Amino acid sequence: MGRAQSSTSLVNDSLRPTMTYTITLQPAQRSFTVEADEAILPAAIRQGIGLPYGCRDGACGSCKSKLLEGRVVHGAHQLKALSEAEAAAGYILTCCGKPQTDCVVEARSVPGAGEFPVLKLPSRVSHIDKPAPDVAVIRLQLPANQNLQYRAGQYVEFILRDGARRSYSMANAPGKLGSPPAIELHIRHMPGGKFTDHVFGAMKEKDILRMEGPFGSFFLREESAKPMVLLASGTGFAPIKAIIEQLQLQASTRPAVLYWGCRRKADLYQHDWCLQMATEMPNLRYVPVLSEPLPEDGWTGRTGFVHQAVMQDFPDLSGQQVYACGAPVMVESAQRDFVADCGLPADEFHADAFTSEADKHAAP
């Protein structure tokens, strides 16, 4: 990545105590300010402005927007998130794009994304379960004096001792926190991973974790009445589970089909929960899909890539709303193929790619 270019100004910077730039969003016609050397997205989050985003690290591309006026320079980011051709065409990543002038940006506003305050708070490990050899389901008790509000599908970031952060989605709806209130997280073991090695090694009940949230523009669009495809791979099931719980709490009559893709049957770590929910919720269907079933699985269900199973069942997605979460390759393939081949409106594909730290810090 090239170094940031310096901004020219008729005013001597030494005479200006703080430099701020105004970002105007189109078509929403909302404006907010960005401090010098600050990226657009964190400034928007800080001021309660709803913009689309996912990883906040320049790896997923969810925040990609069109720069209509002004100048922005980027920090390190992945070419898969913003290619050189896209940058040349005027697209920016708001998560790592720093304005050098006042700017006009074309970006979808996300109603509700900035509705709840971002809090830093401690949490206590109250329960650890391992439903699969490489998956931990942990419950974190929240402090009684801080009310964490979020939307089903959003995530929190854990702040590690060295300041590093790790992101995990809440797997329970905000109305399912219980008493005392606790959030549920699904964590896959990534061998060598700083945080997940700890979760699968030294972590024990009553440990304290520092976290911040809520974050993310992946959540149930409650204003829509469209039928839904809920698409998950691996532990990308976590925020989808929260969305299903939210639908149940609302007694929603929107038709929904859950497609959960895993390699083997053991990876469907909450298979029985899905079957139970499909029984309890008359508008919910459940379609598990395995890509590499073992002979001993005795699997007679669907096989192959999970997003292709959706396309087989829904060759016309023009009237649907899709929520997809999981491995970046699955999310990217689904978005591309659903829009190009099945007529899904591009703005009805809502996604959260589970980008690992290795993905974030790979060579661009």
Topology:
Blueprint: E1 20-26, E2 30-35, H1 40-46, E3 64-69, E4 72-74, H2 84-88, E5 91-93, E6 97-99, E7 103-106, E8 119-132, E9 135-141, E10 155-159, E11 165-169, E12 182-188, H3 194-199, E13 208-215, E14 228-233, H4 237-249, E15 256-262, H5 271-280, E16 284-290, E17 302-303, H6 306-313, E18 321-326, H7 328-342, E19 349-353, H8 357-360
Give a verbal description of the structure:
With 364 residues, the chain is α/β, with parallel strands linked by helices. It folds into 3 domains: 94 residues, Roll (Ubiquitin-like (UB roll)); 97 residues, Translation factors (Elongation Factor Tu (Ef-tu), domain 3); 133 residues, Nucleotide-binding domain of ferredoxin-NADP reductase (FNR) module (Rossmann fold), CATH 3.40.50. Strands 11-10-13-8-9-12 form a 6-stranded antiparallel β-sheet. A 6-stranded parallel β-sheet has the order 17-16-15-14-18-19, with helices on both faces. Strand 18, helix 7 and strand 19 form a beta-alpha-beta unit. The relative contact order is 0.12. The N terminus is likely disordered.
Short structural description:
The protein has 364 residues and is of the alpha/beta class. The chain has helices at 40-46, 84-88, 194-199, 237-249, 271-280, 306-313, 328-342, 357-360, and strands spanning 20-26, 30-35, 64-69, 72-74, 91-93, 97-99, 103-106, 119-132, 135-141, 155-159, 165-169, 182-188, 208-215, 228-233, 256-262, 284-290, 302-303, 321-326, 349-353.
SSE topology string: EEHEEHEEEEEEEEHEEHEHEEHEHEH
**CATH architecture tag of the largest domain:** 3-Layer(aba) Sandwich
Q: Output the structural class.
A: alpha/beta
Alpha carbon gap, first and last residue = 8 Å
- Unreliable segments of 5+ consecutive residues: 1-17
